[in-house]
């Protein structure tokens, strides 16, 4: 399907207009290229922060922390409330930047900004609920309790595929917990970061607080390493590959810092004989092909019962053949470009490996051409695989869905769990026993486990994150705010006696 394309010059003007509307200053310099996924061309040249500049940002954040931690949490929530209001006003401007840089279709880009708004609402409520516990003391006349206090500077390293939402998950919660944030966005999405941070800076300054509560540092690996290794960064939240996590985790631990890691996903969905295919098929298609397969929660493995496999695949192939691929700004587009040429190369390599390992391509498997656009477009792909091995157990950031067959539900669970990643999973079934078994301790071993819904599309009220090589971190809802605070155990003696531990008597 051919859709109207957007010229590079128009994209540069569009990005500039959005940045101006957001009050973002585009720094002059070189070393970092702001580009668009729609075209293999540059939009702007930007400067790269040095290690010394990162250290300076952390130093300023640390100074801001000393005052911010004394501000009552509900007042800190006022800043986040204002941030959410400004996001509502500028939703389309920020979403435009997301689409320009990442290639997300407009509805998904706006949905990402909506996630930012949602986490602001959540964090504002949280600012009045940073509760501790009263604990029964074994000593008469004593009160035992836990209290929670601001932790310190939070460093955030985010990935290109959710260029603003993941930062907002961390930042909204960190701010109400009393922590400033220093953010290193993906080098593929610097403009989006400049736009989002400008909105937050306005909210902070309107409330009369230090702009150093939120700072952005631009660059690649060296900038990230400077954040990782700085002992003044109390918590380092990093989203990216398993390879990155293997480096970040030990380095932060070596300086006794905290890390919150959101790493790879190789997510599966089981389709049982009783599955309602009216909801199964759209759920699978969106989870597997949405964002051109570039979500950490993208569905990559479909585990289908032999009795329904033919019908499921028939419906999926029909749906895939009708997916409009093209300009993400055009009405009707459902699949935009991959983020860059390297992603296209990885897509082709994965398809070749799958075929060499006995796979049969049912639909897709090749690049797509879009008139007037020079970005990297591919056709969402379904490959029937003989076994879960080789390329199937790897994560490829592209719209490739591997199909596996099962006969027994325990076999399906074993396949679901039989990879090193552990982010998200799903089962489509109308059998309550299967659903409950999937959610039990003996069922799926992922951090997110769903019934009759796909693997993507998490709500901010629930903690987001996974197990095994996914890193074990939790962001957004539930009690994930604990990661951004330190706990103190308090004992208050309001009696006239001093009972000592282990019954010791002293100066009797």
Automatic annotation (TrEMBL):
PROSITE patterns given in the database record: ALDEHYDE_DEHYDR_GLU
Root EC class: oxidoreductase
Active-site residues annotated for this sequence: 262
EC number annotated for this UniProt entry: 1.2.1.3
Entry superkingdom: Bacteria
Single GO term (MF): aldehyde dehydrogenase (NAD+) activity
InterPro entries the record matches: Ald_DH/histidinol_DH, Ald_DH_C, Ald_DH_CS_GLU, Ald_DH_N, Aldehyde_DH_dom, ALDH7A1-like
Record keywords: NAD, Oxidoreductase
Residue ranges constituting the Aldehyde dehydrogenase domain according to the UniProt record: 39-488
Similarity remark: Belongs to the aldehyde dehydrogenase family.
Assembly and interaction partners: Homotetramer.
Record PANTHER family: ALPHA-AMINOADIPIC SEMIALDEHYDE DEHYDROGENASE (PTHR43521:SF1)
Name of the protein in its database record: aldehyde dehydrogenase (NAD(+))
Lineage: Bacteria, Bacillati, Actinomycetota, Actinomycetes, Micrococcales
